[in-house]
Design a protein that fits this description.
This protein is an alpha/beta fold. It has three helices and seven strands; from the N terminus they run H-E-E-E-E-H-E-H-E-E. The strands form two sheets. It has a five-stranded mixed beta sheet with strand order 4-3-2-5-6, with helices on one face.
Length: about 140
């Protein structure tokens, strides 16, 4: 009695499509930056951040591969907070700033986030021995 493998093949194809899609989304949020070098904590996040904001060397703000001005970034943050049922503390925000970028850009963004109720966020770093790889943070 042969076993019908049609359903199994369908599931395998769906999994392949899912992983290809999520992998491309992960790479879209990370642009090549020379992140600050810091040993950092031992804790490694198990989930992907809900929002990644990249700050380039000259202070450009990039979200999902698109260069945005501060107002547009704050609109994205507002939508992310709304998606978290209006609770800004549930928003997992990662800021990836080039280590050559002036801290003025990071501080300005932090103050703007605070006006939106976002008081907790993570700053991506890379281990001191790592080369410029875009950072894992």
């Amino acid at each position: 009695m042969p076993i019908d493998m049609t359903a199994m093949v369908d599931v395998v194809f769906l999994l392949i499509i899912f992983f290809l899609t999520t992998t491309s989304l992960i790479e879209k949020t990370k642009i090549p930056l020379d992140l600050a070098r810091e040993a950092g904590g031992e804790e490694v996040p198990t989930e992907l951040p809900s929002l990644v904001i990249n700050i380039t060397e000259i202070g450009e703000l990039i979200v999902d591969g698109r260069m945005l001005d501060e107002a547009e970034v704050l609109d994205v943050v507002d939508r992310a907070v709304a998606a978290a049922d209006g609770d800004a503390s549930r928003l997992d925000l990662l800021i990836r700033a080039d280590r050559s970028a002036s801290l003025v850009h990071v501080n300005r963004l932090a103050l703007a986030l605070r006006t939106r109720g976002v008081r907790g966020w993570r700053l991506a770093t890379q281990s001191p021995g790592q080369e410029r790889m875009g950072g894992d943070g």
